[in-house]
Amino acid sequence: MTAWFMDNDKLNPLMQTDATSISVMSIVHSTSVDGIGLRNALYTAGCNLQCEHCHNRESWDIESGTWQTLEEVYDQLNVDFFPISILGGEPLMQGDAIIALCRMIKERTAKNIWLWTGHTYEYVQSHYPELLSYIDVLVDGRYEEDRHDETLLWRGSSNQRVIDVPKTIQTGTIVCLDD
After folding, report:
1. CA of residue 151 relative to chain centroid, distance
2. Residue 175's pLDDT is what?
3. Which residues of the chain have pLDDT under 50?
4. Distance from CA of residue 19 to its chain's centroid?
5. What pLDDT shows up at residue 4?
6. What is the model's pLDDT at position 97?
7. Contact predicate 65/23, CB 8 Å
8. Which residues contact 101 (CB under 8 A, 6 or more apart)?
9. At 80, which CATH number?
10. 8 in a domain, yes or no?
11. How many domains does the chain have?
12. Is 7 domain-assigned?
């Protein structure tokens, strides 16, 4: 399967990536802001959603990152026992590689994985259903300035949801961590 770059939730076959490498903005170890507890975070390059008032505009261009193999990214994320967070940019712009990385992490470790996307859970379920079997929490939705709320954990605006993926799959209805 090839990951197509998406334009406003529509598949755009103009550009594609493969599942063997990821354009990486940075990898941060021992972060305490990207999920529960200390975590290792992968910040992917590339975002075609380009939310107004984005705090990470430097990640919009996929070429602003450094291309690394999945094994290289896996090794950097797994230097210790901390769980994993995957953010961007828009990680699903490199969807096949992100799925392959999450599969690799789950097959080799017992680590918890959180993933942030500007797309909704329903979109991910429709376009990347395999991904949901590898992640534990999905923070979904575009950042919306008019719904900005500094009191929220792990997200910037109140339209975004922090979804417990296994419970959501089990119950067939969206289960948020703050529910």
Report:
1. 22
2. 98
3. 1-15
4. 15
5. 39
6. 97
7. yes
8. 22, 42, 70, 73, 74, 86
9. 3.20.20.70
10. no
11. 1
12. no
Neighbours of 125 (CB within 10 A): 16
Query: Pick from 36, 35, 56, 55: which is nearest to 46 by CA?
Result: 56
Specify the pTM: 0.88
- Identify any residues that bridge with 12 across adjacent strands, giving them in sequence order: 5
pLDDT at position 160? 94
Query: Residue 2 has which token pair?
Result: 């090839």
Domain that holds residue 117: 23-171
- Examine residue 15 and state whether it is found in any structural domain, yes or no: no
What's the pLDDT at 17? 65
Distance CA 88, CA 119 (A): 12
What is the C-alpha to C-alpha distance for residues 61 and 10, in angstroms, rounded to an integer? 19
Q: What are phi and psi of 135, to 5 degrees?
A: -105, 150
CA distance 75 to 96: 18
Cα–Cα distance for residue pair 46/145, rounded to 1 Å: 21
- Tally of CB atoms within 10 A around 28: 15
**DSSP states of 95-141 as a string?**
HHHHHHHHHHHHHH----EEEE-SS-HHHHHHH-GGGGGT-SEEEES
**Spatial contact of 22 and 70, defined as CB atoms under 8 Å apart:** yes
Whether 141 maps to a domain, the answer reads yes
Per the document, the length of the chain is: 179
Dump pLDDT digits (tens) for 34-75. Answer: 999 999 999 999 998 887 777 777 878 999 999 999 999 999
